[in-house]
Amino acid sequence: MTEQNDQYAVIGDRYSDFKDTAPLAGPEAHNVLKHLGDLTGARVLDLACGHGHYTRLIKSAGAAEVVGVDLSPVMVELARETEQKDPQGITYHAADAVNLPRLGEFDLVSAVWLLNYATTKDELTSMLRGIHDNLVPGGTFVALTVWPEFDPFGPEWDAYGLRVVSETPAEDRGVLVTDLIGTETSTITTSRWSYEAFAECLAAAGFATYSWHVPEVPAESVERFGDAFWDNYRANPIPGLLIGTRTATPGGTPAELRAVVKGLDADLSAGDWAPTELERVLAAKLLTGVPEGGLPTVDAVRAVFWEGSEAFLRENGGRPALVLGALLPVLEAGGEEASAAAGAAVTLLRRFS
C-alpha cells in the first residue's frame, strides 16, 4: 500500500481542495451519509479518512465516537490541524488498512475510496477482514469504491471532476489511472475490482451478507447544476456503494435465525420485499424432497450457496442468503430448539413459490 501513501504525500493539499469543490462532492456525501443511516450515539471508524472530510461530517451528524484512519501521514496531519482549529473530539491515526489493528468495537465502519486501492486479492481480503474485526456483531460497513460495472470507455466524467486516463486489465481488476480535475490536476492510480473478486474476498473476510447500491443524485445537486448535467453520472457511475453486515451472533443461534426469518417474513407479507426468480428457483431446489415438517440437510444448504454464486449474495439485498447463512449453524447444532427455528425458516422459504 506504499503506492497510495506516495500518491497522497504528493497531492495532499490539492486533494483537500478537490474534495471540497468538485461537483461530485455533493452526490458523494449524500450517498455516504444516507447509507450510514442515523448516526446518533454511534461509534464510527472512518477508514481512508484523508484530511477528515467525512470524519467531521459523521461527528457533526451525531456520532458519539469517531476515529479516523488513513495510510498517508500527510493527510492525517492535515486532519489533525483541522481538529486543533475546530475541536470535535475526533482521534486520528496513520495506519495501513491492509494491516489494520483492532482499534475498538464500532457500530459502523465507513470506507470511502479505500477498497479500490487494494492491488491484490490478498490486500482486498485483509482490508475487509480488518473492517470485520473492528465491527461489533451486527455492525455495518459502508464502502464507496469503484463500481464493478463502470465502463472506462463510456460516458465521461470530466464535468464532475474526474477524467479516466486509462485502464489496464490485471487478473480480477482493471488498473485505473484517473485525473482529479481541480485548480491543479492530480493523477491517481486505483483498482476496479470485479464482482467475483469482491464475493471471494468478502467471504474470506467473514461477511456472509452484503449488497451493492447505485449512487443517486440528490435534489440539491440537480437544483444547483440542472438535471441534464448529471446524465453521464447516472449512465456510467464510477462510484458504487458496498454495504455489508457482520453476523449478529458469530456461530449462529436459533434466536438469531428466528429474528432473521421474522424480519423477512414481515416484509414479504407487507409487500415491501419479493424474491427474485433466482431466489424462487434456489428455494424450490433446496426444498425438493423435503417432506412437510422436515428439514433440508446441511449439504443441501451449502449446495444452494454454491449454485447461487455471486448473484444470490449480491442481488435483492441478499436476504434469503442471510436466512440460509443463519440456518447452516443451526442445522449443524441440532436439538429441539434448533429444529423449531429451522422449521420456521423452511416455512418462509416455501412461501417463495
TrEMBL record:
Q: Name the UniProt key words of this record, in alphabetical order.
A: Methyltransferase, Plasmid, Transferase
Enumerate the Gene3D superfamilies for this protein. Answer: Vaccinia Virus protein VP39
Q: Where is the Methyltransferase domain?
A: 44-139
Q: Which GO terms describe its molecular function?
A: methyltransferase activity
SUPFAM superfamilies linked: S-adenosyl-L-methionine-dependent methyltransferases (SSF53335)
According to its UniProt entry, the protein's GO biological process terms are: methylation
Coiled-coil stretches are: none
Identification of the protein by name: Class I SAM-dependent methyltransferase
- Organism equals Streptomyces goshikiensis
What lineage does UniProt assign to this protein's organism?
Bacteria, Bacillati, Actinomycetota, Actinomycetes, Kitasatosporales
